[in-house]
Amino acid sequence: MKQKITIALSGNPNSGKTTAFNAITGARQHIANYPGVTVEKKFGRINHKGYEIEVVDLPGTYSLTAYSLEEIVARDFLVNERPDVVVDIVDASNLDRNLYLAVQFKELGIPLIIALNMVDVAESRGIKVNQETLSTLFDVPVVPTVARSEKGINELLDKVIEVALEGEEWQPEIISYGIDIDQSLHEIEEVIKKGIVYDEKYSPRWLALKYLEKDRQIIELIKGDPEIKKEIDRICKRTFKHIMDTLEEEPEGIIADHRYGYIAGITKKSVKRKIESRLNVSDKIDKVLTNRIIGPVIMMTVLYGIYEFTFRASKTPLGWFEVFFEWLKGMISLSIPEGNLHSLIVSGIIDGVGGVLSFVPLIMFMFFAIAILEDSGYMARVAYMLDRVLRWFGLHGNSVMALLISGGISGGCAVPGVMATRTLRDPKERIATLLVVPFMNCGAKLPVFAMLIGAFFTENMAGMMFVFTLLSWSFALFAAKILRSTVLRGPKTPFVMELPPYRAPTIKGLLIHTWERTWQYIKKAGTIILGISVILWAMMTFPGLSKEQAQIYEDHRTRLRESFLSLPEVKEFIKDKHGGLITLDELFTEYNTAFLNNDMESVKALAKSPFFPIVERILSKEAIERRSEEENSALLKAAAAYAGLRAKIANIEVNEQQASLKGSIAGRIGLGLEGISRTIGFDYRTNIALVGGFAAKEVVVSTLGTAYSLDKVGSEQSGSLSEKLRRDPDWNPLVAFTLVLFTMLYVPCFVTVISIKRESSWKWAGFSMIFNLIVAYLVSLMVYQIGSALGIGI
Ligand code: GDP
Ligand code: MG
Q: What pLDDT is recorded for position 415?
């Protein structure tokens, strides 16, 4: 008797697999409403009636033929790990379509249980499934469930134990595909059995079937034995021709038809539906939401609404983060003396990584809004509507999902986006999608945009974000159109878009979803971004000024101080009234700022400040009266001289810091690029940030943060990066807008480039870097030059 049981949860996307997994294991899992999100398998372990059951959540798939990543992942797990039982979560309200996968499990032969899920939905639509009939005809145990309310889960587990205890061998079911195909399958089987590549993992019939279905993995496998491949290809070619001649369809299509026929035969007897329930609630909603005219209007409104919500809701918490980081910097300054360590922590980490982290509230609200779209099923409608547009630009319906995943609304990631292109079977459509996916506004670009919006476009933040989204889509679509009519010219392939039903999202699902993505963002900031920030800080700090150079600045300052102290009015003042320079410092600063202006308002304000005791000493009426007229006028003169000294020394410090930054390793790279970058309004600091941004786009924010922290213009050290940029005369809305466009379009980040390479080749990965850089530069050049000429935003 076996104590440990392994089960695999499988099923079509949206059949409730994740919900069932959560109900069984109590574990957390991402819940989304479109295919392509659940690519990794998740594990959970529970005890049921003394048995330890390990549950693996397979990616949602419609089929077991290795066309897509999900299918490969799912199938590999099944044949390599050979779980005791596969539990196929089937959507009872959409049985015919869902059983397509179940049929293939039967063909594979793995012990199977069908969880007839969403029986509540089916019932509400007037669909009644006779579970006994289904079980008998399909020859598989069937357990009805409502995963959302955990109904039937215990019964399901009982059944799992029962089936696992039987410990049956795999028994491939044989389904007829008509005389011709059956005959060829038989012949291919015989050839395979002779070959060296025959793998016990699969039955020869399965291999034969999948080869006919043009399964990528199996074709690779058979390639390993050129002898038998030749023989099999001969049979396939003959079959193909014969089938085309007689049925005017490819064998693939015929095989699918037969599977659906097999299913229809079963459901006809086991499913009863009321005619009047045909038009269900989702269909009715879709009549409005995907209407050709109203649909897009609603879509745009929803999009705008999301941005409005995100910026409004995050405004206050963003302020808290700013205050927190200011406070932190203050604490550090108090406890760590000026020097490299201080600079690393304040300029490298807090102004760098902190700048990225301070956008967490914004990211969180954005993800929350997107989670609502996904979990409710509206995202699939967005895809559905965009599909019409995309086709015109030479992209495929499946490209929509890739683009949305990459940040079509903002806040996605191009890496899973690139992987999602695997569902595209036409290589040219696939490469075209692959190449434009990085134009979308991924989560890493979000802090860059938010920072620049916060600095220069505060009047209508949501509107600006909306514009950026539309721009990124426009660039992606036009680039696709160009690619598809030049290097990637080719025919369009057909596509059917499926619309899952609408569902009310659960609060728990939304929160988990939001938190998982926010946590990813935080984790990335705390690891990769932190590492890169420290490296870039070092590159911006070292080698620093040479001793001689630093000495020049120091000498300059010393000279100024000495000449100040030897001024007659100062000399006299020190000699007569006060012993040391420190006292002078305190007194003069306050005196200078308030007394020189001599208006009561600032005197009063000063009186409230922590400097009150000093201020009072010099500014109080009595104090002034106590002093002779002569004394007061001496004080005034000395104060004016002191103010001059301070200004000059601050100026020297700024020059020194700038010289140090420019002379650093990164500074030299940034300066070297200024020749080109000046044409689009970027100085060496932005160049450093953009070079760093190749590692990850958030680095654009963290690096600017560090650069502006190291180079304290006018000795202004406080404030967020947004504030610093706003104050800097080199920056204006036009530069900011250009930087947004450049960040949106230029070279995809390092990880994305690697993913593109993995999905295609170095050639296309290299192409995407160069292509994107050129597009980014040309667009920026046009915008900046036209903007400058017309005086817009400067
Ligand atoms: P998966 O993507 O296939 O894993 O499916 P999910 O677990 O994400 O479920 C999709 C949606 O269906 C979620 O909103 C669930 O709350 C909902 N859901 C899951 N099971 C049931 C059920 O039995 N009845 C109803 N009404 N909804 C369900
Ligand atoms: Mg799922």
A: 85
Distances (CA, A) of 557 to 272, 571, 656: 93, 18, 11
pLDDT of residue 155: 95
| Widest Cα–Cα separation across the chain | 120
In whole angstroms, give the CA distance from residue 442 to residue 448.
11
**In a mutational test of the pocket of ligand 1, which residue from 9, 14, 18, 19 has the highest number of ligand atoms less than 8 Å from its CB?**
19
Say how many Å lie between the CA of residue 693 and the centre of ligand 1: 39
Rounded Cα–Cα distance for residues 102 and 3 (Å): 27
Range 381-385, long-range pairs (CB < 8 A, 24+ positions): 381/286, 381/289, 381/290, 381/295, 381/299, 381/499, 382/299, 382/408, 382/409, 383/34, 383/497, 384/290, 384/497, 384/499, 385/290, 385/295, 385/296, 385/299
Ligand 1 pocket, mutate which of 38, 117, 148, 508 (most atoms under 8 A from CB): 148
As a whole number of angstroms, the distance between CA 103 and CA 96 comes to: 11
Instruction: Provide the percentage of residues in the chain whose pLDDT is more than 70.
Output: 85
How many whole angstroms from 38 Cα to the centroid of ligand 2?
6
Task: Map residue 47 onto helix, strand or coil.
Answer: strand
CB of 45 closer than 8 Å to CB of 77: no
Domain with CATH 1.10.287.1770 in the chain: 179-273
Say what the pLDDT of residue 679 is. Answer: 95
Burial 299-333, CB ≥16 within 10 A → b, else e:
beebbeebbbebbebbeeebeebbeebeeebeeee
The residues lining ligand 1, judged by C-beta closer than 6 Å to any ligand atom, are 11, 13-19, 31, 60, 117-118, 120-121, 146-148, 375, 503, 506
H-helix or E-strand spanning residue 245: helix 226-247
Q: Letter for the amino acid at 390? A: L
CA-closest residue to ligand 1 atom 9: 16
**Ligand that lies nearest to the alpha carbon of residue 89, given by its number in the listed order:** 1
- Phi and psi (nearest 5°) for 545? -80, 145
How far is the centre of ligand 1, averaged over its atoms, from the C-alpha of 16 (Å)?
Answer: 3
Ligand closest to CA 21: 1
Q: What is the pLDDT of residue 634?
A: 63
Q: Per DSSP, what are the bridge partners of residue 47? A: 52
Residues listed for the chain? 794
What is the DSSP pairing of strand 4-11 with strand 42-48?
A: unpaired
Judge whether 401 and 325 are in contact, CB under 8 Å. no
CA Rg, the chain, in Å?
34
Q: Note the pLDDT of residue 335.
A: 86
Any idea which architecture 179-273 has in CATH? Orthogonal Bundle (1.10)
Instruction: Tell me which of 25-29, 311-315, 754-758 is least confident.
Output: 25-29
In the chain, which residues fall in CATH 3.40.50.300?
Answer: 4-166
3-class DSSP assignment, residue 358? coil
Rounded to 5 degrees, what angle do the CA atoms 678, 679, 680 make? 90
The domain defined by 4-166 carries CATH number 3.40.50.720? no
- What's the whole-number mean pLDDT along residues 639-653? 75
DSSP state of 14: T
Residue with more model confidence, 100 or 497 = 100
Sequence-separated (6 or more) residues with CB below 8 Å from residue 85: 5, 6, 7, 8, 110, 111, 112, 113, 160, 163, 164
Q: What SS3 state is found at 602?
A: helix
Hey, what are 483's tokens?
């690619």
Closest CA to 787 of 686, 681, 675: 681
